[in-house]
Amino acid sequence: MPVAGLVTDRRVFDGMPTHQVNDEYVTVIRDGAGALPLLIPSTDTPLAIADILKTVDGLLFTGAPSNVAPSHYDGTPRPGTELDPSRDAITLPLLRAAIAAGKPVLAICRGFQELNVALGGSLHQHVHEIPGRLDHREPQSASSRDVEYAPAHTVQFAADGVLARLTGQASAMVNSLHHQGIDRLAPGLKVEATAPDSQIEAVSMPGAPGFLLGVQWHPEWRWAEDPLSRALFAAFGNALRTAA
Q1: Cβ within 8 Å of residue 57, ≥6 positions away
Q2: Is 24 among the catalytic positions?
Q3: Residue-by-residue pLDDT tens, the chain, 244 positions
Q4: Catalytic (active site) residue 109
Q5: Which of 124, 126, 178, 218 is catalytic?
């Protein structure tokens, strides 16, 4: 069974630093991708990138409550932005090294934004404040997780892209739980999907030596009920098995 690394968040609970990843990511790697999930801690001193890459066949960069520190793209922090510098310290160099090594990479939500920043792009810190853009945040009065993660808007796939090929479709409905998003697209990345307001929702990297896909939405939520999510994780699993 191939091994997929999942970088954890570093958060403080009851005064104690902990390493966290939501169970949905662990489950979908096991059941959707058919791989062994291995959690990678975001330690105060980052683990050696070479050691991580020797241990895993590919990497899933997950969503998180925190955001990439704006200092990584020459931005100024805005109020209401939760940061996780320990995670930044490992994910950004790990992304660059994994791509260079040809390791399969799937990046979701915060991971999607990390991918863009790691490769030289920038982020909007509050997409909903931009004239003409949708409010991409989860419903502020959501009564349940199902409401919070419910389909929110369509995404249009690039006609010649990975998502169109995987699904045989031109578009899909996705959930939306983010207030940040891609501003300047990183060199080498290709837009795979856009929201109705033209916000970038998915990217690939045609020049990457291995599988690479990033999505802004959360395909891990009830993944087995959604054809797009099943196709995403099946493709990632196939890439992991090829790389193993």
Answers
A1: 2, 3, 4, 35, 103, 104, 240, 243, 244
A2: no
A3: 999 999 999 988 889 989 999 999 999 999 999 999 999 999 999 999 999 999 999 999 999 999 999 999 999 988 878 899 999 999 999 999 999 999 999 999 999 999 999 999 999 999 999 999 999 999 887 779 999 999 999 999 999 999 999 999 999 999 999 999 999 999 999 999 999 999 999 999 999 999 999 999 999 999 999 999 999 999 999 999 999 9
A4: yes
A5: 218
| Known catalytic membership, residue 220 | yes
Catalytic residue among 24, 114, 192, 220: 220
Q: Domains in the chain: how many in total?
A: 1
Considering 24, 109, 178, 192, which one is annotated as catalytic?
109
Instruction: Report whether 196 contacts 134 (CB < 8 A).
Output: yes
The H or E element containing residue 117 is: helix 110-118
Tell me which residue range forms the domain holding 79.
Answer: 3-243
Q: Output the domain CATH number for residue 117.
A: 3.40.50.880
